[in-house]
Write a structure and sequence with these properties.
The strands form 2 sheets. Strands 6-2-1-7-8-10-9 form a 7-stranded mixed beta sheet. Strands 3-5-4 form a 3-stranded antiparallel beta sheet. It is 39% helix and 20% strand. The protein has 2 domains: 66 residues, Chemotaxis Receptor Methyltransferase Cher, domain 1, CATH 1.10.155; 188 residues, Vaccinia Virus protein VP39 (Rossmann fold). The chain contains 9 helices and 10 strands. The termini are far apart. The protein is globular. By secondary structure, the chain is an alpha/beta fold. The structure holds S-adenosylmethionine.
Length: 275
């Protein structure tokens, strides 16, 4: 077996990898994250029993093993997520966005969870809608570049840690507790939620039939540089309903990225509205 444990990438090799990842995914890993990427890539090289980085890059660039790029993305993406993340932001949905939809006579919402990771965000939105706005029906589509997390989202099995902020009555109602501290989101509540592997850099050409009323893209674009952020936000703009909402992570903003969305300030959070 090839021993890559104590090898390092040169700065030139890192740059080549950095460019490749950026072109394929929009994610930009600066030099300060070299160690992180290096560990992940050396692990892939060791798993595949390749001799060196050059051999690995040749496989990637020439798509000699077409699945390897997927394995690489599965390794390098940061998939941290949990149920009921950013409660103040969720309160804005509960107190403003969903009530406004109801009072304007809406019966149905089409929702996108972009960079959905293992599905916690999509399932959280569905719990809120079911509990607080039963008069609204909805579809939620979760997309992510990593097929590992998409598989997990479809399975819907979570650790105690992932469900730690789920209010107890909802935990009891929506999840089945399996041995070993696993909580399974019940199939009976999954009907209108679907997940699919998709690269946000290709979102503009994705064949979605109808526009989205709400697009969640929380803690995804933090890994993108300005150009790829603009590309993704422009593609959201073309696929969001007029007056639709865009919800980013609470540390993220569209400042210097796009003026197509109006920033709405609430005491607890900021969300964006299509102009
Ligand atoms: C930190 S998680 C955020 C999950 C969830 N939105 C939340 O706020 O809890 C970021 C996710 O974005 C995904 N991602 C990164 N680049 C992507 C791309 N180009 N296309 C689709 N998903 C991407 C990652 O795989 C990861 O699962």
């Amino acid at each position: 077996m090839t021993d890559t444990s104590n090898k390092q990438l040169s700065n030139v090799e890192f740059k080549e990898l950095q460019d490749f990842i950026y072109q394929k995914s929009g994610m930009f890993f600066p030099l300060s994250r070299k160690n992180y990427i290096e560990q992940k890539v050396l692990k892939r090289i060791a798993t595949l029993k390749y001799e060196n980085f050059r051999e690995y890059m040749n496989i990637l660039k020439n798509e000699l093993i077409r699945t390897e790029i997927i394995n690489l993305f599965n390794e390098i993406t940061v998939n941290e997520t949990f149920f009921f993340r950013d409660i103040p932001q969720l309160e804005v949905l509960e107190k403003h966005v969903f009530p406004e939809a109801v009072s304007s006579g809406r019966k149905f919402l089409n929702i996108l969870s972009a960079g959905c990771s293992s599905g916690e965000e999509a399932y959280t939105i569905s719990i809120i809608l079911k509990e607080k706005f039963p008069q609204l029906s909805y579809n939620i589509t979760g997309i992510d570049i990593s097929d590992l997390v998409i598989a997990k989202a479809i399975r819907g099995e979570y650790t105690e840690y992932a469900v730690r902020f789920v209010p107890k009555p909802y935990l009891k109602k929506y999840f089945t507790s399996i041995d070993g501290g696993v909580y399974k989101f019940q199939d009976q509540f999954k009907n209108n939620i679907r997940f699919q592997k998709m690269n946000l850099m290709e979102f503009d050409t994705a064949p979605f039939g109808s526009t989205f009323d709400l697009i969640f893209c929380r803690y995804v674009l933090i890994y993108f540089d300005k150009d790829s952020k603009q590309k993704v936000i422009n593609s959201f703009y073309s696929k969001i309903a007029s007056n639709g909402y865009l919800i980013l992570g609470n540390s993220e903003s569209l400042f210097s990225i796009s003026s197509d969305f109006k920033m709405l300030h609430f005491p607890s959070a900021i969300i964006y509205n299509r102009r």
